[in-house]
Write a structure and sequence with these properties.
It is a single chain. Strand 4, helix 3 and strand 5 form a beta-alpha-beta unit. By secondary structure, this protein is α/β, with parallel strands linked by helices.
Length: about 300
């Protein structure tokens, strides 16, 4: 396939580029820093510095849209919320318009989203039929998905990647946790009963390959492993792998004081099931958290 990707220089994007290159696909990555693309994404990956270069005569078999400013960072002020929306929704709308103008349209459009679309759902088991939540994060995903789904009107198969926490020791959430846990300073958040739905990066890229090829799949897909855990369970599993205690607790009130509305990303959660992936026959390499962490940390330096 000839594939156009946004967000290709990010952590997930780099992992995905390496996997797709191994399979023999041709890749073009949209980046504001095109000179870094070959170094970050792999030799042979082409760079596109602007969507203006996606002219009607250019032919892509597939488009993968992973771009978006990280949702955890500075406080969710009105200005930051606007940036979060623009980095997801506006870019997706522009991308869909370019696909619409193409003389030969892509067969498939895989577009990012997050399991945050469901809101804080407590201990309920959630599949892709669950209605969206009403908080800022959920509505951000709703509008992001709506922008992507508009491509379906042009006959393009659209898949919404409702992504959980991607576990990887090269970056992301797990990397931020490793130092305090190695120092014996790790611990649960609040009462630890909030659910965490996660996926090993190798399963994530494997599932992307399935979604690119399987023409039966469209709409939302939960990009999570089947073994969701509570925050307390994850804390104990990580501490056990590192042979360290995990006795501390970060009070929920302290997070809310420090992070404001954004704290809900850590104090709330979703118990999400990958129903559509499993029905499509996808076999997870790492369905359980202990196996996923063991594999990641055995391959990581200073594990």
């Amino acid at each position: 396939m000839n594939i156009l990707m946004t967000g290709g220089t990010g952590l997930i994007g780099r992992r995905l580029c390496a996997d797709l290159l191994r399979q023999g696909h041709q890749l073009t990555v949209l980046s504001r820093q095109p000179a870094t693309v070959a170094r970050l994404c792999g030799q042979g990956v082409s760079a596109m510095d602007s969507l203006d270069a996606y002219t009607p005569d250019r032919v892509f078999d597939a488009v993968i849209n992973l771009a978006g400013e990280p949702i955890i960072g500075a406080r969710w002020t009105a200005a930051r919320k606007a940036r979060l929306r623009e980095s997801r929704i506006f870019l997706t709308e522009c991308l869909v318009q370019k696909m619409r103008e193409a003389r030969v349209k892509p067969a498939v459009f895989l577009s990012g989203s997050a399991i945050g679309v469901y809101g804080d759902t407590g201990a309920d088991r959630i599949d892709e039929t669950r209605a969206a939540g009403g908080d800022f994060g959920a509505q951000l995903c709703v509008d992001w998905e709506a922008a992507a789904l508009s491509a379906a009107r042009d006959g393009i198969r659209v898949v919404l990647l409702r992504t959980g926490v991607v576990l990887d020791t090269a970056g992301g959430a797990l990397t931020k946790m490793l130092l305090p846990f190695r120092l014996g300073l790790g611990g649960k958040i609040g009462d630890g009963q909030q659910w965490m739905s996660w996926i090993h990066y190798q399963d994530y890229v494997g599932l992307i390959s399935l979604l690119l090829q399987d023409q039966r799949i469209s709409g939302s897909v939960n990009m999570v492993a089947p073994g969701a855990v509570t925050n307390a369970e994850f804390t104990q599993a990580l501490a056990a792998q590192l042979h360290r205690p995990a006795l501390l607790t970060t009070p929920a009130w302290a997070l809310k004081l420090a992070m404001g509305e954004m704290a809900m990303l850590l104090t709330g959660g979703q118990r999400v099931l990958p129903v559509r992936a499993q029905r499509a026959g996808f076999q997870f390499m790492y369905p359980k958290i202990d196996g996923a962490l063991a594999a990641l940390l055995s391959a990581a330096p200073d594990a």
